[in-house]
Amino acid sequence: MRIRLLGNIDVVLDGAVLPVPGLRRRALLAALALQRGAVVDKDLLVGIVWNKDAPSTALNTLQSHVSYLRDLLGDRGVIQYRRPGYILDVEGTDTDVELAENLFDQAVRTTQLTDRARDLRAVVDLWRGPALADVAGLPWLEEQADRLEHLHGRAGHALLETRFALGEHAQLMPELEQHLRDNPFDEQMHGNLILGLYRAGRQADALTAYQRLRTTLAEELGIEPSPDLRELVTAILRQDPALLRPPESLELSGPPIPAQLPAPGATFTGRQVDLDRLDTLLATERGSLAIGTIAGTAGVGKTTLALQWAYRVRDQFPDGQLFADLRGYDAGPAVRPVDALTGFLAALGVAGDQIPVDVDQAAALYRTMMAGRRMLILLDNARTADQIRPLLPGEPGSLVLITSRDRLSGLVACEGALPLPLNALTEAEAHQLLTNVLGEARVITESDATAELARACAFLPLALRIAAANLAWQPHRRIDDYLAELRIDRLRMLTIDDDPEQGVAAAFDASYQALTVPARRLFRLLSLVPGLDLTIPAAAALSGIEVADAQVLVGRLASAHLLDQPASGHYAWHDLLRAYAADRSDAEDSEADRVAASRRLYDWYVEAVVGAADLLYPHMLRLSRTASAHIFADRAAALDWLDTERANLVAAVRQATVPEAACVLADALRGYFHLRRRSTDWLVVGESALNAATALDDVRAQAAARHSVGTAYRCLGDSPSALQHYDEGLRLTRLSGWQEAEATALGNLGIVYQAQGRLKAAVGRLTLAIALDRRIGRTAGLANNLGNLAAVYLDQGSLEAAVDCFDEALELNRRSGSRHGQALALTGLAQAYREAGRVDDAIDRFTEAMQYCVEIGDRDGQAIVHIGLGEVARDQGRTADAREHAHAALTLARDGGDPRTEALALNLLASAVSDPHEALRHNTRAHELAERTTVPRSQIQAMLGLATATLRLGDLAQAGAHAERATTLATHCGYRLLEAEARATSARIHLRLGEPQQATG
């Protein structure tokens, strides 16, 4: 049985020709036949057979087509399933493609002209039309068809040469003339024509044919005929008798097959995603030249990846591979396009004296020589698109792969190149690279140090290889010891002692020196940025230039891969580039310039954060009350900016390069942290500001920092720590005469006393705060402290007093326009109304409060309102709604890291689920969180939740114990509402125990 692909696809079985109906079936048979003897993955077959149009049922349809082909071939064992795909068995079947390839190889090897002519004629005769003619439109098969047609052309060319050598020049004249009309620059065949005419006694026609070729080459390509042709004409003019004797043997002529790829790296690791992306180049549509540009920072492994992939696919390019290192970033001059063309033309068989010195003429000749060829061209270390363009073939079929530190966007835009950005290795890939060099035993022994080494090298392949090489020559040295030195001076340690030009710093030098002077300056100043990334406005502030100019410079740095762009509008760099920038700044910038740059950046951060604060929480007491610029369009834009820049702002305060600005920044961020509850960052910012303020001996700034840190601890439920900072903050406000802050400090102490269950002390502090606010006329502080006093009254069960205070706080906040204040007052009112049984009023207030919380981005406020609405829904029997509110509150609380609110949400969820075991899990977790907070109110609520859960499970003794502890603590602290709830729970338990007297006692 033979499967025929050189023409329409069919099968010859027992002398009968069997057509294969259906495009997909023909494509499937061709794909298997072209890879006969190999397992072809099902997913790959789907891609070949359907390209991008695969239906959702493609795999099932593929199985159906396989079944059909098995029946057609008459032997169901011919196509076998082997995980993960199918294989066409090699026994009892062959293909005309394999026969053609084998015959051509045999013809190339034989020295007998008659045998060679016979084999080549057999190859040519196997074609019944264009290869794979009836599966047009499927890219993979079209690529295979191109390859087969190229083989057909080579066989025909070789057959003409062989027949001519056998003396068949007279019979060949018509074929030669037709061939030359189709291939006017085929000098080898022109030589055969000229020699054939001479042997036929037509010397004048032979010389005319030569002159005609010479004129064509001069006019079209600007070159002379080859030395071999010129020698042939000289021999004709001498009437050399040797010209009349055909050769006894002939080596097949044809274009040379260059193989210029350097050896790939021995320690190549990973990069599977990048290799897969490169594979997409092989599927480039017919009619276009495949171009790929691998771009990335120095040392990221561009050349290594390109060579590794090139070696994997080189067999798909039968006419060979060309390689040129364009040296775009070397210290010396880059390779000129004409120099690269000279090397390529020589490799393609053009004699040195025939290679033009003009770049345009050389490029034209190069495109001519590349016509009809399928080659892989690797252009390494390119710097500009103009360096590349003359080296691009003029016809489709070949593939050009380029590596560069620049994006070469012009090639992408104008030539349709596929951009392939290359990033650092993944953590796993970096670990494997170190393992490959250092050995598995050493890496396992110091696994933590190995992971840290990879991070210290920024997962950059060049840095990893240098570090590994240095360690490999010192097998007894601990990786930890090497790391200790590396942390001191990364750039020095990432250098090869006997080859310093291969070090990380040397690689960065080339990219740095290629920049303009302004771009170099900005790059150096980037080392002063305290955060992980920056925006273009921040870069403009840092360098003291206009935003438009900064955009150009930042774009240039990003294009040169000295900056990455991890998100829209944000630019970052890895630690090795930061170290290199710092090294260059130390060498080239004065201390005064660096200080001025840092101050400009901090001033810009202050202006932006204060501007956001003025929009989001304008009534909050802050250190700086200077008018801010209108940077943000609205509150949403301000909050979004703070969310995005949070890590950079935290880093700026922590580093405190400009301590005065750091103090103002930290204080202006307090309201943001109160809204978003990023407690870890809040503490870092507050404590860093306290250190900076102490170093400055700025008493007000110290008071503000104490206030911020105390509030962060309070939100975490750590009342003792909060109290310590608030007490010291109160002392500092009185020392500095800052009365507005004194009132705030008194109010904060009242809040902590309330949390500790010291309700009388809380009322005392809050009453003092309110009196001071009234005396100095600070409306915002008065409203806030009234709301806090109302919350204490609510805990004490004084509902009427609580409502009065909440009402006054709400009215004051409405007058001042404080959305945050209104949200707090409305939430408090809603809670008071719920306790008073005014459910509809409670829902209205909760709903209005939620609108404000969402508008200002107050996540903890949203969580508290969800809990309130959920409790109302639960009380009304709407348990599904209660669960929905509980889940929403739980998500918000966990996102903000507030254990008190999370515990409240868990208790609500437990009370709204039907499964008592699930309820107990939620209550147990709530109790664990409450115990961590040292807040009695949270602990009481958690114990009540446990009492209810264990009661539902029938564990009356345990339920009673929980209820008793809750009652005792609530009574001691004076939480009258919670005490009432605890006593009601105890009563239910006593009734279940059959103890009615205790239930009413």
Automatic annotation (TrEMBL):
One Gene Ontology molecular-function label: DNA binding
Residue span(s) of domain OmpR/PhoB-type: 1-90
Domain of life: Bacteria
Keyword set, alphabetical order: DNA-binding, TPR repeat, Transcription, Transcription regulation
Single Gene Ontology BP annotation: phosphorelay signal transduction system
Keyword Transcription included in the entry's annotation: yes
InterPro entries tied to this protein: AfsR-DnrI-RedD_regulator, BTAD, NB-ARC, OmpR/PhoB-type_DNA-bd, P-loop_NTPase, Sig_transdc_resp-reg_C-effctor, TPR-like_helical_dom_sf, TPR_rpt
Family annotation (SMART domains): BTAD, TPR, Trans_reg_C
Mapped TPR repeat ranges: 783-816
DNA-binding region: 1-90
One family name in Pfam for this protein: TPR_12
Entry's family note: Belongs to the AfsR/DnrI/RedD regulatory family.
Name of the protein: Tetratricopeptide repeat protein
Organism: Kribbella qitaiheensis
